[in-house]
Amino acid sequence: MDRPAAGQPLDVVIVGGGTAGWMTAAGLAAVFGRTPRVRLIESAEIGTVGVGEATLPHIRFFNKRLGINEPELMEKTQATFKLGIEFVNWGQVGDRYIHPFGAYGQPIAGVPFHNYWLRRRAAGDATPIDVYSLPIEMSRRGKFTAPAVDPSSILSTFGYAFQFDASLYAAYLRAFADARGVERIEGKIVDVKQRGEDGFIQAVRLADGREIAGDLFIDCSGFRGLLIEQTLKTGYDEWTKWLPCDRAMAMPTENVGPLFPYTRATSYEAGWQWRIPLQHRTGNGYVYSSQFISDDEAAEKLKQRVEGKALGDPRPLRFTAGRRRLTWNKNVVAIGLAGGFLEPLESTSIYLIQIAITTLIDNMPDKAPFDARVMEAYNRWIEMEYDRVRDFLILHYHATERDDSPMWRYCRTMPIPDSLAHKMELFRKRAQVVTYKDGLFLEPSWIAVYLGQRVTPSGYHPIADGAIDDAELARQLSGLRTSIEGALSHMPSHEDYLRAYCPGYLRDQSDARRLA
Amino acid sequence: MSVAPKVAVIVGAGPAAWITAIALKRAFQHIPLDVTVIEHGGAPQRGAVISTLPSIRQLHRLIGLDERAFVTETGAAFKIAARHDGWAGEGSSFIHPYGEIGVDLQSVHFYKYLAKQAMGGRAPPVEAFSLAAAAARADRFGRPMQDPKSVFGSYTYAFHVDAFAYAALLRTHALKQAVKAAAGHVKDVSIAADGAIEALVLEDGSRIAGDVFVDCSGSEALLMRRMAPEVEDWSGWFSCDRMLQARASENKSLPPYTLTKATRAGWMSRAPLQHSEGAAYVYSSRHLRDDAALHDLGAFVGGDLADAAATPLRQQRRRRFWVKNCVAIGGAALALEPLASTELQVVQLGLSNLVNLFPLSYDQSVEAAEFDRVMGEHAAGLRDFVLAQYRLSAHPLAKEADAPLPDRLQYKLDTFMGSGHILVFDFETFEETDWAALLLGLGCAPTGMGLHFRLHLDALDPRMLEHLSNSIRGAAQSMPPQREYLMRSKLMSAAGDGAAHA
After folding, report:
1. pLDDT digits 0-9 by tens, A239-295
2. What is the mean pLDDT of residues B401-408?
C-alpha cells in the first residue's frame, strides 16, 4: 500500500455512487481520459438520496463538456424541459409567480428593463411584468422550443434546464464513466486508514477485506460525510437559523394532465412542497421544519395535497442546511451532500455538485503532494458559491407577509445576514439589484423573487425617467409584447416538442397508456 | 424634501469637478438638475500631465466630449500601454498592454500558456503575443479597428493629457451645457440639525444651497474633511509620500506609452504629449530630497525641466465616501500613487456610481451604504494592482512598507503561484490580461498548474503560436510612428499643449 512516488499519476478514489459520485466520475473521465486513474466504490446496500430532480440551465454546460447527447440523455432519464420555477403562496397565501430562466425585456439606455416597467406602473399601467418574459409565458401556456442563438431574436431571451429522474441520471453517467475506463468497485467501506504523519487518507478497507488505496479521495458518501467528517472531523457550519427546514417527505405520483415545462414550489404551513413533472411520473415532496410539524403530519399533508395517484409511500429524508467548513481537507474533496446541503427550493443541488467538479477539474493536480494554495483557492471558491446561493434562498423565506403559521411568522421576523438585508433595502428603495460577477443567480432571478414576494420598490433608477419619452416607451413595450405573442403563436406545446426531440418519449407514453 | 434632488453643488477646480458636473447635468436633464461648480480645491498643477486608462474613452462618450476636439485642443498623445523599466531588476523592462494577449483558446485563457512557459523558465515577453505591446515596444501607433476578429481589433488606447489644458477644455464644455460656475472659496459648510449639508458659504458671504454636494476638491477634501474626516492610511503598504511633477521638452519619437523606471527611492515616469513631455518622480522623502529628485528626474528625461513642483502624497482612502448628502469623488475619496495611471479612473468610477445611485429622496442612507461598498471594492482593486507591483518586484521600498498584504491580494497571488490561475474579483478595473502582464512581466512563475490546463496547452500547435507571433510582429511594423499618425490623421494641435498652457 505504498503511495506512488511524486511524479507518478494520481490515483483517484470516489467514495459513493449517487448523483454526485457518478457525475464526478463521468466529469473526470471525460476530461482526463484514463490518467489519472479513477475508481468508484459503491455499495448496493446503501441507498442513494437521489437529490434534485430539477436542474438549472448550467447543467447544459456540464453535459456539453462531457459530450453528452441531449435527446439521448432526456430519453434515458425520463426528462422534461424546465423554463423556471413557479412559486405559489410565498409572499402571501394565494400569490403566485414564476422565476424564469431568462430576463424581463431589454435594458434601455443601460438601465435594466424592470425600471421602465416600474415607471409605467407608477403612471397607472397595471400590466404585470410577467408578460415581458418569454419563458414565463411559455411556462404558463405549456409551450417549448429551443432558444435561438441570434441575439436579435426574441427566442434568444431564455435558457432551459431539465427535470429528470436523478437515479436514472446517475445510472446514465455510470455507463458513460464505465465506457471511459472508470472502474466500479462494489463494496461497503468498513474502515479508513490514515497516514500517521499528516492524517491523509491512505486507503479504505472494504467488508470483504480488500484495501483500496489512493492519492485523492472524493467523498460522495452523502450527508454523513464518511471521510470528510467521520474520519477527518472537518466541521460543519449550520444555517438552520435562516433555513429552518430540516426534513423532507418524497413521494412520486402518476402524471395527471399535460406536462408543464416548469417546477412548482408551493409553500405550506411548515415548509413547502415541490412538484416536478417527468415523462413517466411526477416527483413530489414536502420540505419542512421538524420544529413546526411532525413527520407523520407532514406525510399526511403530502398525501392529501398531491394531484395524481401515489406510486409508493412517502419516503423521509433528513438534513441540516449548511456547508462543510472545508470541502477540500487534506486529500479528501467532499462533493454533493458530503460537502453541504442547501434545500432544493431553487434546484441548486446538482449545480453545486457540478461547480465542485468543474472547479476540481480546473485545479486537479497531476501529482502529489497537493499545493496548499490550490486547496485554499478551491475551498474559497466553493464557499463563495454556497454563500451566494444561501442568501438567495433566505430571501424566499424572509420576504413574506404570511402570518398564518408559526413557521412563517418566525421566518418573516428572523434576523437575516447583513449582506441580504442591504440587498433588500436597496431594492425596496430604488429597485436596484446587488449583482456580482461570479456565483449563481443573476439580476433577473433577484427581480423575479423580489417582485413576486412583495418586496415592492418605492422608486426606480433615476435615469429611467429621462432616457426615453412616454410614447416611445409605450411603443417599445407593446413591440416587445407583440414579438413575444408572435413567438408563442407558432410554438409547439412542451409535449409535442418532447415527442419530436426524444422519440423514446412517444414510445414510453403510448406503452403507459396501453397498460393503463 | 421628499422628492428627487434638484440642485447639485460640486466643489473643485480640476478635471474631476468638471467631468462630474457634465455627467450629472447630462444624465439628469429631465429633472432638470441644476449643477453648480464652485471652483475651489483640486486645481491641476501647472506642468502636470495625467496618464489615463482606456476607460477614458467611455468617459468621453458619457460626457459628450468629441475625441478629435479633445486631442487637437489639448495636444494630448495616445498611449496603448505602460512600460515599466527596472522593476524586475537592473536592465529589466516589461510592457503592460491595453489590449488582448494571444487569442481565444476556447476553454483556456491564453495567459495560461505564458504562465506555463514561465513555469519552465522560458516565458516569452507579452509583446510576442500582444499587438499593443509589440507596437509599444516598436514605438508605433495606429488606432484599432472595430473588427474583433482582426488582430487590429485586439487592443484599445488611452491618452496622456496636460491636466491644465484638459481642465480648461472641460470647463468650456461644461459651461456650454449649462453647468454654472461660481468663483470664490468655500469658507464654511452650513450643516443642518440632522448633519446634512444645507449650503456652502463662500468668502464673500454668499450661500450656495443644494440637495447633493460632491466633493471633487482632491486631497484637500474641503467638504469631506468636515463631514467624515476618518481616513484609512495606506502608508503601511506604500512608502512614497512625495510627488514631483515637471514638464520636459518635446519627445521626438513620441512613444505611445507611459514609461516608469524604478529607483531606490521610488519611481520616475515620462508621459509624452504632442509638443512636450510630462515628467514625474514619486518617491519616499526618507530616501530623497526634493532637489535631488529634480536632478535625477532631469537626468532621466535628458533635458531641462520647467514648472517643477513637489507636493506631498498621502496615500489613503476615506473611510466613508458618501455621508448624508455629501459624496467624495476622485482624489477626495482615494489617493493612490499614479503607477497604474488610475487618477481619472477613480473619478470615473465615482461618478458612474453616483449617477447609478443618484438619490431619489432626502434620505440617502441606502445609496450611501451601497456607494461605500462598491467604491470600497473598486479602491481595493486599484490598490492591489499597484501594491503587487511593489511587492513582487522586490522594490527596495517594499521592505519598509511591509504591512501584511490585504487578504484578497494574498489570495490572488497565492492562487496564481499555485496554479497559474488569475482570480478577478467583483469591481476590479484590472482584468486577467492586465494582471498577467504584471505578474509575468515581473518574472513570477507559478510552481504548479492544473493538469487539465497543462494537457490543453501542451497540445497547442507550435505552428499556430508562431503564426500568431509573426502576424503580430508584422502588424506592429505596419503601423506608423505616433507623430506620423497624428499628422496624417490631422490630430496635431496647432500651438503648444493646449491654449491654457501657452
Report:
1. 999 999 999 999 999 999 899 999 999 999 999 999 999 999 999 999 999 999 999
2. 96
Strand duo A37-42 + A183-186: pairing: parallel
Secondary structure letter of residue A225 according to DSSP: -
Residue-wise pLDDT for B150-192, tens only, equals: 999 999 999 999 999 999 999 999 999 999 999 999 999 999 9
Nearest CA in chain A to B356: A461
Nearest residue in chain A measured CA to CA from B410 = A373
Minimum-distance CB partner of B417 among A373, A422, A438: A373
The 3-state secondary structure of B285-332 reads: CCCCCHHHHHHHHHHHHCCCEEEEEEEECCCEEECCCEECCEEECHHH
Chain A residues in contact with B367 by the CB 8 A cut-off are 429-430
* CB spacing of B27 vs A422 below 8 angstroms: no
Please give the pLDDT value at position A52.
Answer: 55
B43 secondary structure, DSSP code: P
Alpha helices for A406-489 (secondary structure H): 406-413, 418-430, 443-452, 470-489
Instruction: Specify burial of residue B122 (Cβ count, 10 A radius: 0-12, 13-18, 19+).
Output: exposed
Q: Residue A45 — pLDDT band, cuts 50, 70, 90?
A: confident
The reply to whether residue A422 touches residue B373, judged by beta carbons under 8 angstroms, is yes
CB proximity B398 to A under 8 Å: no
**What is the amino acid identity at position B188?**
D
pLDDT in tens, B423-469: 999 999 999 999 999 999 999 999 999 889 998 999 999 999 999 99
Q: How many residues does chain A have?
A: 516
Distance from CA of A297 to the nearest CA of B (A): 44
Is A82 a catalytic site residue? yes
Query: What average pLDDT does the segment B387-401 reach?
Result: 94
Residue whose grid cell is 463631514: B227
Give the relative orientation of helices A372-398 and B407-419 as an angle to the nearest 10 degrees: 130
| Closest to A281 in 3D by CA, of A317, A311, A312, A249 | A311
Question: Residue B107: what pLDDT?
Answer: 80
Whether residues B419 and A36 touch (CB distance < 8 A) is answered with no
What global pTM score does this model have?
A: 0.95
> What pLDDT does residue A48 have?
67
Chain A: give the shortest CA distance to residue B257, in Å. 30
Question: Under a CB-based contact definition with an 8 Å cutoff, are residues A332 and A13 in contact?
Answer: no
Any long-range contacts for B229-234 (C-beta under 8 Å, 24+ apart)?
A: B230/B318, B230/B319, B230/B320, B231/B316, B231/B317, B231/B318, B231/B319, B232/B316, B232/B317, B232/B318, B232/B319, B233/B314, B233/B315, B233/B316, B234/B315, B234/B316, B234/B317, B234/B336, B234/B383
ipTM above 0.95, yes or no: no
Query: Which residues neighbour A460 within 8 Å (Cβ) at sequence distance 6 or greater?
Result: A114, A115, A118, A119, A122, A430, A431
Using an 8 Å CB-CB cutoff, list chain B residues near A380.
411
Contacts of B322 in chain A (CB under 8 A): none
Question: Per residue in A199-241, pLDDT tens?
Answer: 999 999 999 999 999 999 999 999 999 999 999 999 999 999 9
Nearest CA-CA distance, residue A373 and chain B, Å: 6
pLDDT at A433 over 70: yes
Which helix or strand (DSSP H or E) is residue B392 part of? helix B365-392
Chain A residues with beta carbon closer than 8 angstroms to that of B369: 422, 425
Specify which residues B326 forms β-bridges with: B213, B323
Does the beta carbon of B322 lie under 8 angstroms from any beta carbon of chain A?
no
Instruction: Please report which confidence band the pLDDT of residue A516 belongs to, taking 50, 70 and 90 as the band edges.
Output: very low
Select from B424, B425, B452 the Cβ nearest to the Cβ of A361.
Answer: B452
Residue B48: the pLDDT is 96
Instruction: State how far the Cα of B440 lies from the Cα of B458, in Å rounded to an integer.
Output: 19
- Whether A371 sits inside 8 A of B419 (CB atoms) is yes
